[in-house]
């Protein structure tokens, strides 16, 4: 499932001011300087080259490409880039169509057909239907390596008796060499030599062949580089194009700016666009773009690998798909929470690694994190009881453990706490589910105790209150040991019965599926 539609209407936030809607990327707040398209493009090129260089020099540094929506200054430029990209896509498609026509012409009704597939510009990764795309780590047939042109037989001559022709026969070889140029890649301009009965010497032919090969290799390298740099940045051109399409389709009105850049995601603010028949778009949206940087996600393996909901799928997937799975996971978890009535962002749409949800905040200002807001002692107490309640609901009704719960992922909005950032949330029966829950409890307990809530349970009491378990250990170490023993018991149970069953769930409810 690639997208989901949820009827959503944020209650009070009004649509953006009229001036916002003129440019899909937001209103530039600096007057754009007039310059020619050529200038813009070359500047763009220079930037890209520099970025490429930087990426090569500091592969660990994850750079976020300056998107049009990140800063106001480069909106026009980036729109041009976008246009150029779309034009290029159009051009590539036409090129491929032409290639297909040529292919057809050459093959005709022949039983043996040749394919130009390797020379196509739009590769699966570029196309929209890239669900089955092959990642660069896959070792597939190298599309850039052309089959070698037929060479003179190894014995160095052909024919018999007086008709014998050696590879040194200038006329015959010259003609043959010219004809063999046809074996170069289609985009390699060989001119009209074939029609002109041009005779190429072996030396010239070999030089040309060498050149054609190195051109191909160069092109292959460029493609490779492009894909790798895509992996370095979250908001790569493809993501930008997807976002652009959302604006173009009227789903979003304006993408105004970046709210947050984390290690694993970038979050943007956007004004919602027009509602469709089956979907109401909230007036303000948050767009969470999961970074396509693989390094950062490696250490998250344990969350998803052991989550039985994703188990079967994990091993078969390429890294890009795994990242989409994080986005998908967040969507599913938010939907479960929504159904349980827990205050959290409402899912609008999921598109590949981009999750659009309702914005918690108002007029482009995101609601503050609990760690950044100063609450009255009354509100603090209120926030605590609400949090306790939500944790219980999350566990019992949603069958989930947040697994990254702290004052960093709780927002204060409309006089209550909102939970966000649930892509890593797991079911309690996850092999480390209870440890994650205990960590959540520790964070929550410490935060509210430090915040002066005298009633706040300590982490062990909170754990028991949320899980319904009755672990009696009165110190941290023993408590932790008991938790791990329970997890182990559950794992053994799974091993023996081949099915995940909660041996310790108080009510034994089956997992709640939201589809
Ligand atoms: P991560 O911490 O993994 O980078 P989060 O989901 O926590 O991703 O988002 C990062 C920040 O973006 C949050 O701390 C919050 O400030 C902001 N944010 C995320 N989602 C929303 C939302 N729906 N509404 C408002 N702000 C949001
Ligand atoms: Mn977060």
From TrEMBL:
Top-level taxon: Eukaryota
Top EC category: transferase
Enzyme Commission designation: 2.7.11.1
Chain segments carrying region Disordered: 124-161, 496-515
Any one annotated GO CC term: cytoplasm
Family matches, as PROSITE patterns: RIO1
Entries under CDD domains matching the protein: RIO3_euk
Keywords of this entry: Antiviral defense, ATP-binding, Cytoplasm, Immunity, Innate immunity, Kinase, Magnesium, Metal-binding, Nucleotide-binding, Phosphoprotein, Ribosome biogenesis, Serine/threonine-protein kinase, Transferase
Cofactor(s) the protein needs: Mg(2+)
Protein name listed in UniProt: Serine/threonine-protein kinase RIO3
Organism of origin: Sapayoa aenigma (broad-billed sapayoa)
